[in-house]
């Protein structure tokens, strides 16, 4: 692991990010989070990360502001459907 971390630090320095406190773990965590943020399901992420249980994968997940803002309340969807039905039926 130390060799991998050393290679990561060297690569980060080459691209101008050497002063950042990135580790192999933070890069792995970011990778998993970006996958989920972009629609990958947790089972796929679990397989990509090589985890044996979904619980292990869940440790990598956290709610980003973007994901929180994109959550759709099922009640709002139902209510919007009812409102659309009222508009459609009143036009007939």
Offer a few descriptive terms:
single chain; 92 residues; mainly alpha; 6 helices
Q: Please outline the major beta sheet.
A: none
Count of β-strands: 0
In terms of per-residue confidence, which ranges show pLDDT below 50 for 5 or more consecutive residues?
none
Number of domains: 1
Helix-strand makeup class = mainly alpha
Shape: elongated
Number of DSSP helices?
Answer: 6
Rg (C-alpha, Å)? 21 Å
What integer is the average pLDDT? 82
N-to-C series of helices and strands: HHHHHH
Q: What is the percentage of strand-forming residues?
A: under 5%
Task: Specify the helix fraction band.
Answer: 55-70%
Distance between the termini: 69 Å
Q: What would you say this structure looks like, in words?
A:
With 92 residues, the protein is mainly alpha-helical. The protein has one domain. Helices cover 68% and strands 0% of the residues. It is built from six helices and no strands.
Which helices and strands occur, and which strands form pairs?
Elements: H1 2-14, H2 24-37, H3 42-49, H4 54-58, H5 65-69, H6 74-91
Compact overview of the structure:
The protein is built from 6 helices and no strands. With 92 residues, it is an all-alpha fold.
């Amino acid at each position: 692991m130390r060799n991998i971390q050393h290679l990561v630090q060297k690569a980060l320095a080459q691209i101008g990010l050497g002063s950042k406190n990135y580790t192999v773990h933070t890069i792995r965590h970011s990778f998993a989070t970006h996958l989920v943020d972009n629609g990958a399901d947790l089972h796929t992420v679990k397989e990509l990360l090589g985890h044996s249980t979904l619980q292990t994968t869940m440790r990598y997940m956290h709610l980003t502001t973007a994901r929180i803002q994109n959550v759709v309340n099922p009640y709002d969807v139902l209510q919007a459907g009812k409102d659309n039905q009222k508009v459609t039926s009143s036009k007939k």
